[in-house]
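[STRUCTURE TOKENS]
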Amino acid sequence: TDEKKLLLVNFTGSDWSNPCRILQRKVLNTKTFLDFAVERYVLVTADFPRNKQQADNQKIANQILAHRYNVKRFPTLLILDANGTEVRRISDYNGTSTAQFIQSLIKNQ
């Protein structure tokens, strides 16, 4: 709220979901995306690893968040307002470029 930004929550299976890994590498970790996102969003990752250890409190927090927003597929990205109201949902990743991904975020807000 203080930053007057939306939240961009990335629900990911970082160590087992190929679409999640590709989205992370091809879009979310790029300088172009990060430069765009830092001005508009608070970036949050809710990870659901299968092979990596995760602190119990983090695991529980992620599960509560996924349940609250009915996230059943990975990757799912949610754009939330400061009150936690869902503004937009992006499920799956179809291989779009960083520029295309950014354009889809801009045109739908």
DSSP finds four helices and four strands in the chain.
